[in-house]
Amino acid sequence: MKVLIVGSGGREHAIAVSVAKSSQVDKIYCAPGNAGIAQIAECVDIAAMEFEKLADFAEEKHIDLTIIGMDDPLVGGVVDVFESRGLRVFGPRKNAAIIEGSKVFSKDLMKKYNIPTAAYENFTEPEAAMAYLETAKMPIVVKADGLALGKGVLICNNLEEAKEAVKTLMLDKGFGDAGNQIVIEEFMTGPEASVLCYCDGTHIAPMTSAQDHKRAKDGDQGLNTGGMGTFSPSPFYTEEVKKFCEEKIYQPTMDAMKAEGRDFTGILFVGLMLTEEGPKVLEYNARFGDPEAQVVLPRMKNDIIDVMNACIEGRLDEIDLQFEDNAAVCVVLASDGYPEHYEKGKVITGFENFDGKEGYYVFHAGTKQTEEGIVTNGGRVLGVTAKGRDLKEARANAYEATKLIQFENKYMRTDIGKSLDAIK
Ligand code: AMP
Ligand code: GLY
User: Fold this and answer.
1) Which of 276, 330, 413, 414 has the most Cβ atoms closer than 10 angstroms to its Cβ?
2) Each residue of 212-245: pLDDT tens digit?
3) pTM, 2 dp
4) Nearest residue CA, atom 8 of ligand 1?
């Protein structure tokens, strides 16, 4: 069969590697893809938001399955366009992807269906938000309603910062229309865990857990980024936590979406905070996480095509999801200065060191093929993933492997997964 993947990051590279493992797949296309994906797929120059062009391409090439990796096209309704043209596609429709596209929607859904999450209020007027803050308990969290490249969440330590956050989102429109509405919510503490789940509209199958490191610098300092590294599984995500989430969060979310006439098919990413009062939902995403996919997918034993087809056909209950009994760590190699100012176009060397190296992966995020070779083309350049028998070994392997890749302004966090030492 022929598969088209839509997106261009490390996540899409990880999806492509999983798809390439399937014996059912003869040919992979990726739109628009990147230099790493190009080694296993044919990249086509169509942007992820060009829905009709993507569908034209899928029709023309007789694509059997299209997998949407990114949030923007999902929230924008790419799945609806494919379905209306009779094309097979993996991902939620627009009316379900809103669970990621609108924080107001997702918070209201959780409130209505008693799914544990931080207490909150929604605001459409800055004056009302400012007035509310005057009597609110600090620290507090101010969130843009819409998509903001993962940067629309502002943690505020005091009233002054909180007012500034409201100003940034609602008055200065720092994230455009994403800040037309905001959510102000209670500040929670505890370890975080991300659980990505396959969904078929009715059934939900959680994958192994992972944890992201969102801040740019060691010790969770610096600015928020798309993600500087991940590990899987999370030792904080115990059997007890898992059972609680299955009963109180995952299935109730599926049922809630169905009850609202918004059956969710695709990947539901549940961002959890494991508070002293129990697990609570931080956020939902309607797709694989990046770089969570880079540690979760390499550990999945199933044929990803079987699982995705089962989701599309509403028979996920027939699938026995299986993960390797090991661990994986992904360290993101970024351009120094990310997420602010950084230089691009630096030649990257050392890829050949990974050839045939079992259990090691270099997922490309911001790279480009040029006449000089593969060069850096973004803030997050590569994700180096390594497996190990346990997290400690996986972390040692991943950091060892980061030494095999060179480029001029290479930057990485040195403490991905380090927090684990405290509990071992
Ligand atoms: P989100 O995009 O909603 O997951 O938020 C990004 C990050 O902000 C999360 O991974 C948390 O680290 C932090 N965050 C979001 N909401 C809260 C909250 N209510 N309390 C504490 N931290 C939060
Ligand atoms: N790593 C977080 C995300 O993909 O949203």
Assistant:
1) 330
2) 999 999 999 998 888 999 999 999 999 999 999 9
3) 0.96
4) 153
